[in-house]
Amino acid sequence: MKSLSVKNVLLFCFLITLIISCKSDKKEVDSKTEKVKSEGNIVEMPSNVINIITKSMDFTTKDTITSGWNTFKYQNLSYETHFFLMDKYPEGKNVEHTLKEVAPVFEEGMQLINEGRREEGFAAFGKLPEWFGDIVFSGGSGLVGPRETAMTCINLEPGYYIMECYVKMPNGKFHTSMGMAKPIIVTTEDSGNSPPEATINITVSNDEGITYDKPMTKGKHVFSVFYKEQRHHENFMQHDVNLVKLKDYASIEALEKWMDWSDPKGLITPVPNGVTFLGGVNEMPAGSKGYFYADLKPGKYALISEVPNAKEKGLLKEFTVID
C-alpha cells in the first residue's frame, strides 16, 4: 500500500521518458551494464542500531525510538520478501484508522484489479479518506529477501508512525492486512547520531532517473540516496531505490514487471526466479536523503524503483561487479 503507502492516490503521472545517466570522474558510464574492477573500501559499521526482526508477518522492534538519524538493522528471518516503510501520520490518526478506513479500500481495489477490472479497481481508491493524503512517507529499507539482513539509516521527525510492509501474499492480500503494520512513536528527544560517510552517492530525479557518482566495485559500501525530486507514477508510486542481486538466468523484464504492485502478479510472493533483494532506501519526500549498507560480491546487480516501466524512465540501472 504505498498500498498503504500509495500517497495522494488521485494523482496520476503519465508520459514520463527519462534518460538514465551515471558518471564517474565526469565520464559517462554505459547506461545498461557497467563492469568494473574491485576496489577496497573501509566502511565503519554502526554499533548503535535499532533491530527489526521479521519471522512471519510481523515486525519485532521497539515501540518508541528517538528522533533524528537512526540506523535500522532489518533481519528478515521469514521465507518471503519484505521491507519496512515508515509512514508519519497526521495528528489524531493511528493504526486503528488505517485498519478501518484504509486497508479495506486497498483490498477492494486490488480484488477488482485481480479480477481483470483494472479501471474499476483504480476508481475504488477514490474511497480513501481525505487524511490519507497527509501521510508523509519517510523512508525505510528497500525490499529484503528471505534470510537476508539490510542496514538503512534515515532521519525521522517526532511523531506517530506506522511501520509497514505491503508486499502481497500468493493470494493477493497485502502483508499490511496480515499484521505488518506496527505503530512506532518517535519522540522529541534527538538520537544524537550522525549520518554515515558514503562511499557511493546515488541521486534520484524526475529527468535523469537513478544516477550515481562512482563505479560499483567489489566490497563493502555505504550508499547515500538523495531524492532530488519526487513525482507520482501511473500506479501512484513515487521513486524508491532497491538493490537486487541477479543470477545469470534472471529476467530483467520479469523483475521490472514484478515491481509494479498494481499488476495482479506484481509485488507478490514468489519473486521472479534468480532475484534476491538486498535492501535500499524506501521512498521519501523530495530533498530527503537516506543511506544503506551493502557488501557487493562479484556478479550481476540492479538498482530499481517500484514503478511501472522503470527502465524507460531511467529508474532501472543494471551493473556487474567483477572480482
Automatic annotation (TrEMBL):
Domain of life according to the entry: Bacteria
Natural source organism: Winogradskyella pulchriflava
Lineage: Bacteria, Pseudomonadati, Bacteroidota, Flavobacteriia, Flavobacteriales
Identification of the protein by name: Uncharacterized protein
